[in-house]
Amino acid sequence: MSLHARCQQRIAIKSAHRTVWRRRCVRYYASNTANDPEWFQKVRTELLSRRPQYHREELDTLHYEQFYTTLIGFTPNTVKHDANSRPNISLAELLTRFNVRVQSPNLLGDGTDPLHHPGEPWMRRMWAGGAVKLSPALKLDLEARSELPLRLKQRVACLERIKDVRLHGTGDEAKIFVTVERRFASRSATEGESEGTLSANNFKRAIRDNDWSDSLVKEERNLVFMKAKTAAELISITSGQGLGATRYLKALEHPDYSFTLTPTRSLLFRYSAVTYNAHLIHLDPTYARYVEGHRNTLVHGPLTLTLMLQVLNKHLKLSQIAQGHEAITSIEYRNIAPLYCDEEMRVCLKKKKQTDTGHSWDVWIEGPTGGTAVK
């Protein structure tokens, strides 16, 4: 894959020998901050100075049960193990945990939290994509297994911070992209003297210095903030003239494997509940249509990642490729076009590279017309 195909999602797989590394994409929305307008430089500085969020939780069985109950019927052969046996949790499930619980009176008008919000007039938020990487030490540990070394009822810490803020476009078309980084570590690794204060500070310092330290997993979430619809746009939407067809990208090559599903209102509601997400574009069809300009409620960006991870993981376990204890070690993806409730979508997999050390995969999601919505 050439470096110019940066929108193509690639996944590195860990074999029983060593890791296959994937070339990192260049963010398509990067801007030269030195040349950015003064107002944006102030916004960027304020966002980057916000205090990181530090969470410590037990990997409880309730979340585990709710996660897999939500996905049954929407992923291939979803199996929920007995929680009493304390199974290892999947990467997909881990990424749905550690959600900041902002009190309801402090939520914004669209139901989102204000933690990453740049302020007015940037009142619309969408999920633009993200990336996940496992630590080099954890990749070595995966030689003997195919799951994360994290089990139910184990204590885990997560540190979340705003890593980067970028401006793309000008005028009414301007967008602010906020990159949120989350790091996960065993809670015992972050605890030490004074009830964990010393080790927790070391954990935070490692993030500041861009070091892995005790982190097991790094996740980046790319959020895009846009201005509210203008009065003219809202009038057009109300009259039914402003709801154009979704512009999906041209379909990619034929997949080696695909799984088709149709997201329902119950799926979107339950996933919102599991991830503590009150964003109205996933829950309220009237709001999604007449305020945001969508024809129906939207499938969550994180849900598309969950589906891709679950489908690929199941395919690896059921195929001969899984021999040798392979596991997903890195992933990057972009949400290009919205996917809607009650509209068919297809998760597609294609092996792109195979060596004696592992495999790389392209994974994407197609919308109801066959065009690419996530890749």
Automatic annotation (TrEMBL):
This is Uncharacterized protein. GO terms for molecular function: (3R)-hydroxyacyl-[acyl-carrier-protein] dehydratase activity. One of its GO terms (cellular component) is mitochondrion. It comes from the Eukaryota. It comes from Didymella exigua CBS 183.55. PANTHER family: HYDROXYACYL-THIOESTER DEHYDRATASE TYPE 2, MITOCHONDRIAL (PTHR28152:SF1).
